[in-house]
Design a protein that fits this description.
The protein is mainly alpha-helical and 111 residues long. The protein is built from 4 helices and no strands.
Length: 111
């Protein structure tokens, strides 16, 4: 009789263990999916802002205003839009500020 009780208790304990593990894995999957969706949403927002910035830059460059279109681009596009990441030497000059000559040189290589 004691052996039957221990076997049933063992089975019941394993069933509870499996149920708890399944709940744990489901919660882990839900949290990771939520984190992935949040990061993906943020990347899509950044991509939309980037596309908007590129389209605005192309409109400014194609307008062919009187004067230098690259300097018009430099003055009209917000610095926070173009330098939203960590500052590095490709976006900023040695002083840590945006260098118009550096911007013009980079744009000239792109165009």
């Amino acid at each position: 009789m004691l052996v039957c009780f221990l076997v049933e208790a063992h089975k019941s304990l394993l069933d509870h263990l499996i149920t708890m593990h399944e709940q744990y894995v489901t919660g882990l999957l839900r949290r990771s999916q939520h984190a992935f969706d949040e990061r993906h949403r943020e990347f899509r927002k950044r991509a939309r802002r980037g596309i908007h910035t590129v389209l605005s830059a192309m409109e400014i460059l194609l307008e062919r205003r009187t004067g230098d279109p690259l300097m018009a681009l430099y003055h009209e596009i917000d610095e926070s839009t173009t330098c939203s990441g960590k500052p590095d030497e490709t976006r900023r000059g040695p002083s840590g500020r945006r260098d118009p000559k550096l911007v013009q040189m980079l744009l000239a290589t792109i165009l």
